[in-house]
Amino acid sequence: MQLGTTTVDVVSDGTYMLDGGTLFGQVPKTLWEQQLKPDRKNRVRMGLNCMLIQTPTINILVDTGAGSKRVDKLKDSYELNGNKLIKQLKNLGLTARDIDVVILTHLHFDTAGGCTKLDRAGTAIPTFPKAQYMVQKDAWIEANDPNERGERSFNPDDFLPLEAAGLLTLLDGEHEIAPGVTTQVTNGHSKGHQIVLIDAGSERIAYLGELIPTPYHLPLASISAYDRAPDDTLSEKRDLLQTAIDKGWLLVFGHANEQRAGYIDQRNGKSHFQVKEM
Questions:
Q1: Torsion of Cα atoms, 61 then 96 then 113 then 29, to 10°
Q2: Across the chain, which distance is largest between two alpha carbons, in Å?
């Protein structure tokens, strides 16, 4: 998507399967299965979406998918069909060494797994060796000391090698990454979760990460059981959606498998979602 001198693309690391009941929290299956049909194990297929922002001076990647280190293990657990990000970047004319900044919405394995890869000796090293990896300080603290409920979501070799290589930047709240590209903290899914906002003149884009992971989570009550503080998610979500409607934001979803982006508007007191191909 060309926006003046800036190009924005949704790129994918593949797909995986998650339990539908967990994904939709307190929403009954009789409601959510009308939109997403589960398999015989009650799982639905989700996308591992990332976003590439190219300006005349900088290449920014938002999130990295599940990566290549645990393809076999994740295939057994999550029916992973992944490890596609590097090829997608290649299709756009870029290599891993061309990425200048990696913004991480948070450090769960399905968004930060691709931060590192295994070298020939089996050691995890940064996938994007010339990039600064940017994550909120609170997200870093939680990932390094998770509680029992969240510990299975983190793999230390996804992010500790970044610090060892001197490629880690910890943010403390809203931050301008580049002109027109800012991060905004949206606690709820995890501590220090952040979304990415792009203001490119005529278009405003919000990459939502896990705040609203799919368009099926646009209804306020549709909040994943994975969320650490669902009431915080609800509050952040309500405010963001109203702003998106008022200002005509293009919303990009971190885990949508098909309808990866679109606009939301209100007509006759009801919200309507319009898909945008990216």
A1: 50
A2: 61
At residue 128 the predicted structure's pLDDT band, cuts being 50, 70 and 90, is very high
Which residue range is the domain that position 6 belongs to? 2-275
User: Could you give the number of structural domains in the chain?
Assistant: 1
Please provide the DSSP assignment of 174-203 as one string.
SEEEETTEEEEE-TTSSTT-EEEEEEETTE
CATH at residue 46: 3.60.15.10
Q: What is the pLDDT of residues 173-193, one digit of tens each?
A: 999 999 999 999 999 999 999
The pTM of the whole model exceeds 0.85: yes
Region of 141 on the Ramachandran plot (φ > 0 left; ψ -120 to 50 alpha; else beta): alpha
Helix (H, G, I), strand (E, B) or coil at 170: strand
What burial class does residue 244 get, using C-beta atoms within 10 Å of its C-beta: 0-12 exposed, 13-18 middle, 19+ buried? buried
Contacts of 228 (CB under 8 A, 6+ apart): 149, 150, 188, 189, 190, 191
Alpha-helix residue ranges (DSSP H) falling in the chain:
20-24, 29-32, 71-78, 85-91, 109-112, 137-144, 160-164, 230-247
- Cα 51 from Cα 62, distance rounded (Å): 5
Task: Residue 57: name the closest of 167, 177, 184 by CA.
Answer: 177
Beta partners for residue 205, in sequence order: 198, 250
Residue 125, Cβ density class (10 Å: 0-12 exposed, 13-18 middle, ≥19 buried): middle
Structure letter (DSSP) for residue 67: -
